[in-house]
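queue> pop job 88
queue> type: inverse folding (structure -> sequence)
queue> payload:
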């Protein structure tokens, strides 16, 4: 295997620790699971994992250089991502009714398709995730071993699999709890408001951070 075994073990342990620490992705999946059930939680995780694959590819080609050369690019992506999160949160707080097809498909207030796209776009439009991946992965790549792209691919695969396992478990558990609560109308409204508040909070945090 064209990768340093010691670095591989260190990367895996470090990634697991990072994954079990609550962050924006976990909170997002938690909210989707609470609102749309286990299926929505899994689809949201799949969306986040898909965007992580993009981030790994970006890390390999060095988009960080673009953000450094053109600071405006970072700002634009950050603001767009923050606005999207706030939009999602406001929509949930307003509790707009979705089509019966979406509701039936998800078993709750968020369809699998919407959960997937929301997870994909929310993570994809977060430049901090891009810069983190760019800064994190190269630390565990050894150019002397050659096949740098393959090393990135191996590390990226481990990162994505671990994220899917951890966040997926959170989404399913949150979905089961949310499913029980959704049978009570008052509780369901609280779920929508609480989830919307989480998304708005994440959006504001992303917008104000530098």
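queue> result:
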């Amino acid at each position: 295997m064209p990768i340093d075994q010691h670095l591989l073990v260190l990367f895996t342990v470090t990634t697991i620790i990072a994954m079990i620490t609550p962050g924006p992705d976990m909170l997002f999946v938690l909210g989707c699971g609470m609102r749309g059930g286990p299926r929505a939680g899994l689809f949201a995780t799949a969306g986040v994992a898909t965007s992580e694959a993009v981030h790994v590819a970006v890390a390999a080609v060095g988009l960080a250089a673009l953000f450094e050369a053109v600071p405006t690019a970072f700002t634009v992506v950050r603001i767009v991502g923050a606005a999207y999160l706030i939009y999602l949160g406001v929509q949930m707080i307003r509790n707009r009714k979705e089509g019966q097809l979406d509701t039936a498909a998800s078993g709750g207030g968020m369809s699998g398709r919407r959960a997937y796209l929301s997870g994909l776009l929310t993570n994809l439009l977060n430049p901090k995730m891009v810069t983190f991946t760019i800064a994190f992965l190269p630390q565990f790549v050894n150019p002397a071993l050659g096949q740098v792209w393959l090393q990135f691919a191996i590390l990226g695969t481990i990162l994505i699999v671990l994220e899917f396992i951890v966040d997926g478990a959170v989404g399913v558990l949150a979905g089961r709890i949310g499913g029980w609560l959704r049978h009570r109308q008052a509780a369901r409204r609280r779920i929508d408001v609480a989830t919307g508040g989480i998304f708005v909070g994440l959006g504001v945090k992303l917008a104000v951070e530098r």
